[in-house]
Amino acid sequence: MSDTSQILRELAAGDPEAAARLWAQVYDELRRLAAARLRGEQAGQTLQPTALVHEAYFRLVGAAGGGESGWAGRGHFFAAASEAMRRILVEAARRKRRLRHGGGRARVELTDAPADDADPDGVIELDEALTRLEAEDAASAALVKLRYFGGLSVEEAAEAAGVSRATAYRQWAYARAWLRCELGGGAAGAE
Predict the structure, then answer these.
(1) Torsions phi, psi of 188, nearest 5?
(2) In 10 A of CB 143, how many CB atoms?
(3) Which helix (H) or strand (E) holds 147?
(4) How far is CA 161 from CA 73, 137, 140, 173, in A?
(5) What tens digit of pLDDT does each residue of 28-72 get?
(6) H helical segments located in the chain
(7) How many CB atoms lie within 10 A of CB 136?
(8) CA distance 129 to 138
(9) d(CA 81, CA 55)
(10) First-to-last CA distance in the chain?
């Protein structure tokens, strides 16, 4: 049993110090996952990995350190963190798309060089396609969320989802093909 699983049980039992120990235990890995996920974003993304990790952790554990605290273990916690990061990125894309938040303006860097326009519509389209995939095949959609938004490898996603490695690879192949068709032939989370 991992230290993270033990800390999660202590958090569920109401240990006031468990949230701080959990933060120290998972921060580096969550930051690595967030950085990997944000590397795939288009230029103009203003959300930084540190901010993404902090917001996701706050949503999971909360300000008081209590949070949901009903995780079945380390894999379940990271699956929940992956979902929280996905929701944060989708919310940021929707916010950026709104005109009152500069949705129609191009971002200009301080170097005065024109920046590429970020495409918040792409994140929203992917989220909508994932919702449709979830209605058809929830397990494959969950795997995509872990891979694409959580930055996990297929093996890590298999562990987090509680499925075999072979099943995870089948679900990943199916989901990628399904999303390519849904999104008009574009690459959906290519490895």
Answers:
(1) -110, 95
(2) 27
(3) none
(4) 11, 14, 10, 16
(5) 888 888 887 787 666 666 778 888 888 888 888 875 455 555 677
(6) 3-12, 18-39, 49-61, 74-97, 120-136, 138-144, 154-161, 165-182
(7) 10
(8) 12
(9) 10
(10) 30
Q: The dihedral of CA 51, 59, 101, 117: what is its sign?
A: positive
User: For residue 30, what are its two tokens?
Assistant: 């969550």
**Max Cα separation, the chain?**
54
Q: Which two tokens stand for residue 43?
A: 């230029």
Residue with tokens 């891979």: 147
| Residue boundaries of the structural domains of the chain | 3-99+115-182
pTM reported for the whole predicted model? 0.54
Looking at residue 169, its pLDDT comes to 93
User: Amino acid identity, residue 167?
Assistant: T
- The 10 Å CB-count burial string (b at 16+, else e) for 38-50 is beebeeebebebe
